[in-house]
Design brief:
alpha/beta, Rossmann fold, 2 domains, seven-stranded parallel β-sheet, six-stranded parallel β-sheet, globular, disordered N terminus, Glycosyl transferase family 1 domain-containing protein, Glyco_trans_1, glycosyltransferase activity, Glyco_trans_4-like_N
């Protein structure tokens, strides 16, 4: 089929088959704190999801622009506005206000969307950094909410419902069930690029915990459960300044031959961690909107043992790809029998329900529903 080149203003757009000429043109973005893919040692699910979505949609032949800082690499069309990532010391040492730097990027995105007539802008950033610009610009906008909707600040979001060009997507049915009157376009599960999370059939010799070291994620409970079960625990994750006290009091005293803190690992090292793990522990203390680490672990063959909060029961098949438990003691009992879980079944659960292709197809459906007025 012949391909043509299109232009929007003075910007040349990628070639596409004539048969796809009426397809939508979508802009996707998250933060400008980091480039995509994320640098080694940085864990930020929102950015990972936005980048994987842009790549996958572009591979499917859709016309996608990824807005991200310099240094990013994508299969979609990249627009940086000449902005370096805020994590660059040359930037954050000169401009101490990261929120202004982020808002500057968002304003540029919506100016671009109006100038070049994008059909829809899809944000994976906090709604409070997006809604004002979407409202003023009038650009059709979909915001995927990655935070728990129970955060007090989210109570104000319905005040923007008068702007009929703004829609929201939830990450799970449990996420959307929070009583918040918003114009929901639907639910789309996060997906992972299965080429980046390779399967291992080895049973594993240790337990692991992956995530930010903060009270809500429950690393201290994972430590207790591992000690009770008599198994090694390897912990990987970022410690932010506000969580230093938690780490010093609840985690650090137990570090030694059985409990090991590996630091903030890059994607390849986390993949190896999952591949060698008997199970991932996720003893959360909040209503988890999704929990991307569960999907990453299962893709690598590691079963997941998690508290039954938020989206957990939607992601784990209890007794098949891990165990959904109610408390610390039941977590220990689950650890004792997790060796019976078929690791290949864990991988298949991700292939069938949480792949990047499945996520992309889900969002395409939402885009078209929004185009048709939902």
């Amino acid at each position: 089929m012949a391909a043509i080149r299109r232009r929007a203003g003075n910007v040349e757009l990628p070639s596409r088959p004539i048969a796809l000429f009426n397809e939508m043109r979508i802009g996707i973005f998250c933060t400008n704190n980091y480039p995509y893919p994320l640098p080694e040692g940085i864990i930020y699910a929102n950015q990972m999801v936005a980048g994987v979505l842009a790549d996958t949609l572009a591979e499917m032949g859709e016309e996608i622009i990824l807005f991200a800082p310099e240094g990013s690499k994508t299969r979609a069309r990249l627009e940086t506005f000449g902005m370096k990532p805020y994590s660059d010391p040359a930037i954050n040492s000169r401009y101490p206000d990261s929120y202004f730097y982020e808002h500057l990027m968002v304003s540029k995105i919506f100016c671009y969307a109006r100038k070049y007539h994008l059909d829809l802008v899809h944000a994976h950033l906090r709604p409070f950094s997006v809604v004002p610009y979407a409202a003023v610009s009038g650009v059709t906008t979909l915001i995927t909410v990655h935070d728990p909707l129970s955060y007090p600040a989210y109570k104000a979001l319905p005040l923007a419902n008068e702007f009929k060009n703004i829609y929201y997507a939830a990450l799970s049915e449990a996420h959307r069930k929070v009583r918040l009157n918003l114009p929901w376009a639907g639910v789309v599960y996060n997906g992972v690029d299965l080429r980046q999370w390779r399967f291992s059939g080895a049973k594993g010799t240790y337990l692991c915990f992956v995530g930010r070291l903060m009270p809500q994620k429950g690393a201290d409970i994972a430590v207790w459960a591992a000690l009770e079960a008599g198994l090694p625990l390897k912990i990987a994750g970022t410690i932010y300044d506000e969580d230093q006290k938690y780490f010093s009091e609840k985690i650090k005293p137990y570090l030694g031959s059985q409990i090991e803190y590996l630091g903030a690992l890059g994607q390849r090292d986390i993949e190896k961690l999952y591949q060698g793990a008997r199970a991932l522990l996720m003893p959360i203390r909040w209503e988890e909107p999704f929990g991307l680490v569960m999907v990453e672990a299962m893709a690598c063959g590691a079963p997941v043992i998690a508290f039954s909060r938020g989206a957990v029961p939607e992601i784990i098949l209890d007794g098949e790809t891990g165990f959904v438990v109610d408390n610390q003691k039941s977590m220990v009992r689950a650890i004792e029998k997790v060796g019976k879980i078929n690791r290949r079944r864990c991988r298949r659960q991700v292939e069938e329900n949480f792949s990047a292709a499945g996520m992309a197809a889900g969002y395409l459906e939402l885009y078209r529903r929004i185009e048709n007025g939902v």
